[in-house]
Amino acid sequence: MKKILLxxxxxxxxxxxxxxxxxxxxxxxxxxxxxxxxxxxWYENGVKKLHPYLKKEFEQTPLSKKYFLKDGEYFVNEKPxxxxxxxKSHEDLNFVEKNLAISxxxxxxFAYQIRFMLTCFLHDAIWVQKYHNMxxxxxxxxxxxxxxxxxxxxxxxxxxxxxxxxxYEYLLSKLPYINILDFFKNTKVSQDELDFVIAHPxxxxxxxxxGSGLAVFSVAGHIIPNPNPELFKKNYxxxxxxxxxxxxxxxxxKGIVNFASPLVLFYSDLSDPSYDLTYYNRLLxxxxxxxDMFWITVNYRNDPLGFPGGSxxxxxxxxxxxxxxxxxxxxxxxxxxxxxxxNSALATHTSYWATRRIFSKAVVRAxxxxxxxxxxxxxxxxxxxxxxxxxxxxP
Length: 395
Prior knowledge:
Layout (H helix, E strand, L loop, with lengths): L1 H17 L3 E8 L7 H24 L1 H6 L6 E3 L4 E3 L6 H15 L4 H21 L1 H20 L3 E7 L2 H12 L5 H6 L5 H9 L7 H4 L4 E3 L5 E3 L3 H9 L1 H8 L6 E7 L3 H4 L9 H15 L3 E7 L14 H8 L9 E8 L5 H4 L7 H20 L1 H14 L5
Parallel strand pairs: 1-2, 1-3, 1-4, 4-7, 7-8, 8-9
Antiparallel strand pairs: 5-6
Helix pairs in contact: 2-17, 4-5, 6-7, 17-18
């Protein structure tokens, strides 16, 4: 009898484990000009209306069910997570608007309207890019990501407009893609400090953890190690504990979706080879691909603030361009900035919520096409032939 009960218990445990699924939370991050109660409500209502369409599209499209949900291993959580940072910029924006009001009486109506429009569109994008403004936002977002991890969920970060700056900075600052030994070999530490690092190996870490007493990432884009040898060693021995607190838990962030994104316009300095962070940007790409993550950009073609994230390269082309070996090949990066939308250029940037059916299909298509662009040879061949035909290129 005891054997029968044990056998039944074992079968129940095995059955439960077979049907165990991991929830994926879609975490939405606001953009510029969302810094008062009215715009906060507009943003939150937009998310609540959009999310069911995205969830349905991911769950019903055969290839996204296969690749994104891993044939039932994952499911999209019913409730979206809404992350709002707009109030943090409100006080600074009020200061600009008060000064803007002065110009109303001394310049033409047309000039004032242009200033006002530029203020609305650009203030928060410029504001959030500054490190002292971005850092507390990243910590608040990190709290949300860790809460999802604690609940057993993975997350996908959706960055709208300037919110795409936040998704990018979160990956760059919080993902544990930095090998400690390689990092200190490439920074100006003494031989004694390097020997100390070699004698005390630590797990991979993130920029935020390294910035907690071991190195400073300057506004000029350079990395400066702690000049105090004793303090360096003391902080170094605590690095694993700091990593656990400061870095994103492994395999929690599945990917990011940036949309209506002017990221390239504001972060073009990352193409500068003399900028130390450019190298770590490449290591971030390597981490995304090796850890089955994704980074997709979806812009409407007539969105004046939606900038393409770059050409869609194969992993082999990325390796050649960055001189970095990537292994295994599992994730991908993909840009789809050609999505059609019936709105005018003036209205398109704020229309993603209202055109939720079109946008949801575009996001899922970008995910599926991005995956197939890397891992489906027939798909790649058809894309090349289509491109050659469109531009009358002879192979």
